[in-house]
């Protein structure tokens, strides 16, 4: 399938809505408004053009991160795959067909040309599992089993000493 890639710079027009599918997958959605601008040399000023609205969806870990990081009014950059859908609306004796452009995000972030941000890496399950395997190699599987029995599912390992650090 040939997807159409799209990058949009704009502002969030609503807060992020986090939902879960029936299978438990996280999905976040929000709307972005992007207004074209051009400089009018004759009048020495910027002129706003049309405003386009996009519904953006983020899945899984990105959904959680977007929900925790983004809020209404923020300038953002969204990169993803363009999806379009049609909606028919009955209007008296005829039907209007409205076309919507949605974006399935592959990356979302603040627009740093308009402000600053601080990045915090989120620990993923694959990283935790990698640390658990390394710990089992160093101290034995019994140590990992013991941690599981203690109910601690968030731990880190000091790579120099092999010491288990509770997070």
Describe what is shown at a glance.
This protein has 167 residues and is an alpha+beta fold.
Report on this model:
With 167 residues, the protein is α+β, with helices and mostly antiparallel strands. It folds into two domains: 106 residues, Beta Barrel (OB fold (Dihydrolipoamide Acetyltransferase, E2P)), CATH 2.40.50; 42 residues, no CATH class. It contains three helices and eight strands. It has a five-stranded mixed barrel with strand order 1-3-4-6-5. β5 and β6 form a beta hairpin. The radius of gyration is 23 Å and the shape is elongated. The relative contact order is 0.14. The model has no long low-confidence stretch (mean pLDDT 83).
Keywords:
single chain, 167 residues, alpha+beta, 5-stranded mixed beta barrel, 8 strands
Lay out the secondary structure.
Elements: E1 5-12, E2 17-20, E3 26-40, E4 45-59, H1 60-69, E5 75-91, E6 94-110, H2 125-139, H3 141-149, E7 155-157, E8 164-166
Parallel strand pairs: 4-6
Antiparallel strand pairs: 1-3, 1-5, 2-3, 3-4, 5-6, 7-8
Q: Which parts are unreliable, with pLDDT below 50 for 5 consecutive residues or more?
A: none
Specify the CATH homologous superfamily of the largest domain.
Nucleic acid-binding proteins
Distance between the termini: 43 Å
CATH class annotation of the largest domain: Mainly Beta
SSE order, one letter for each helix or strand: EEEEHEEHHEE
Number of continuous helical runs: 3
Can you name the CATH architecture of the largest domain?
Answer: Beta Barrel
Helix content: 10-25%
What structural class should be given to the helix and strand makeup? Answer: alpha+beta
User: Mean pLDDT, nearest integer?
Assistant: 83
Computed Rg: 23 Å
Number of strands: 8
**Form type:** elongated
- What composes the largest sheet? 5 strands, mixed, barrel
Spatial strand sequence of the major β-sheet: 1-3-4-6-5
CATH fold call of the largest domain? OB fold (Dihydrolipoamide Acetyltransferase, E2P)
């Amino acid at each position: 399938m040939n997807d159409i890639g799209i990058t949009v710079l704009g502002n969030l027009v609503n807060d992020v809505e986090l939902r879960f599918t029936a299978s438990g997958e996280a999905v976040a959605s929000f709307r972005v408004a992007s207004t074209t601008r051009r400089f009018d040399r004759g009048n020495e000023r910027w002129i706003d053009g049309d405003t386009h609205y996009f519904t953006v969806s983020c899945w899984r870990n990105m959904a959680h991160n977007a929900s925790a990081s983004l809020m209404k009014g923020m300038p953002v950059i969204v990169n993803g795959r363009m999806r379009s859908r049609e909606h028919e609306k009955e209007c008296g004796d005829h039907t209007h067909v409205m076309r919507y452009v949605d974006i399935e995000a592959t990356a979302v972030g603040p627009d740093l040309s308009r402000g600053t941000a601080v990045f915090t890496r989120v620990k993923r399950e694959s990283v935790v599992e990698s640390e658990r395997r390394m710990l089992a190699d160093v101290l034995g599987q019994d140590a990992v089993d013991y941690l599981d029995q203690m109910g601690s599912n968030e731990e880190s390992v000091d790579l120099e000493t092999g010491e288990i650090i509770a997070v």
